[in-house]
Design a protein that fits this description.
The relative contact order is 0.19. With about 325 residues, the protein is α/β, with parallel strands linked by helices. Strands 1, 2, 3, 4, 5, 6 and 17 form a seven-stranded mixed sheet that branches. Strands 8-15-9-10-11 form a five-stranded parallel sheet. The longest helix has 22 residues. α1 packs parallel to α6 and α4 packs parallel to α5. A hairpin with a 3-residue loop joins β5 and β6. It is elongated and about 65 Å long. The protein folds into two domains: about 180 residues, FAD/NAD(P)-binding domain, CATH 3.50.50.60; about 110 residues, 3-Layer(bba) Sandwich (FAD/NAD(P)-binding domain). This is Thioredoxin reductase. Belongs to the class-II pyridine nucleotide-disulfide oxidoreductase family.
Length: about 325
């Protein structure tokens, strides 16, 4: 018979690792399951400047996550590298299945996160964290006095573009249509911003450069004309921010009875409870207004604390 854990955490990003840390310190038998590398989206961030109390110069996403992982290990958190493909969340014992194993637990903390919808251009993957970003709040400081381009035309894209104008000397929105999809109130503010420019009917075909982003080819969707953009010689680089939406890693929970919104994000209360008793959601996978390392870590801590409370009430 499989071991029945007190807590199983799905995902080893900041939310999952914080949940593991708090559960482990509470002497709960805890298993963190991650299908890939620890860290989630933060693992592709070269520099971090906005994590409270950060004292390590040149902190990177991987270095921060490595310390979180070590903290979990210190408090006895078990680890499994596996891909869960079937979940049964009802009942007192939750059952998670993969191709090679079955896991059982009294509680489950879902921290499988979300991922930025890719721009879809050639070279995008190679230049993630080297000029291509999906988070203005995370990376705006690194482009102070540089030119940046924002791909998208919805609320998030325009709001993030306006935020970037506080740092970059020029921000250009690249949109595949000839008008924005953002709310009119947001558009009005954007059009009044002198540092904000627009490239209509355009998509990004390719990004490139010598180790850091300095070239981009765009295409006019109406004429098919290709234009190559090269970074200013004094700058040597520019930034491209993709804001065409995020996608939650939640498909596996479809049909399980777990409530999700129309986009696949999981609603919770302030204590990370989902609609299923003993099942909690933390981090980017849940419905929330700000997706950052600090909010993910807080979610994980709350979820683990509530999991302990739930287990105690079962006794």
């Amino acid at each position: 018979m499989s071991k029945v854990y007190d807590v199983i955490v799905l995902g080893a990003g900041p939310a999952g690792l914080a949940a593991g840390l708090y559960a482990g310190r509470s002497r709960l038998s805890t298993l963190v399951i991650e299908k890939g590398k620890d860290g989630g989206q933060i693992a592709i961030t070269d520099d971090i400047e906005n994590y409270p109390g950060q004292i390590v110069e040149g902190e990177s996403g991987p270095s921060l996550i490595a310390r979180m992982t070590q903290q979990c290990e210190k408090f006895g958190v078990e680890r499994a590298s596996d891909v869960i493909n079937e979940v049964h969340l009802d009942g007192d014992i939750k059952v998670l299945k993969s191709a090679k194993a079955e896991y059982q637990s009294k509680t489950v903390i879902i921290a499988t996160g979300a991922f930025a919808r890719p721009i879809g251009c050639k070279g995008e993957k190679e230049f993630m964290g080297k000029g291509v970003s999906y988070c203005a709040t995370c990376d705006a400081n690194f482009f102070e006095d540089f030119e940046v381009y924002v791909v998208g035309g919805g609320d998030s894209a325009v709001e993030e573009a306006m935020y970037l104008t506080k740092f970059a000397r020029k921000v250009t929105i690249i949109h595949r249509r000839d008008e924005l999809r953002a709310a009119k109130s947001i558009q009005e503010k954007a059009f009044k911003n002198e540092k904000l420019h627009f490239m209509w009917d355009t998509v990004v075909e390719e990004v490139g450069g010598d180790g850091i982003l300095s070239e981009m080819t765009v295409k006019n969707v109406k004429t098919g004309e290709l234009t190559k953009i090269v970074a200013d010689e004094d700058d040597g680089m520019f930034g491209v921010f993709g804001f065409i939406g995020t996608l939650p890693n939640s498909k596996i929970y479809e049909g399980t009875g777990l409530e999700m919104d129309e986009r696949g994000y999981i609603p919770t209360d302030a204590d990370m409870h989902t609609n299923i008793p003993g099942v909690f959601a933390a981090g980017d996978i849940r419905v929330k207004s700000l997706r950052q390392v600090v909010t993910a870590a807080a979610d994980g801590a709350i979820a683990a604390t509530q999991a302990e409370k739930y287990i105690n009430e079962l006794k």
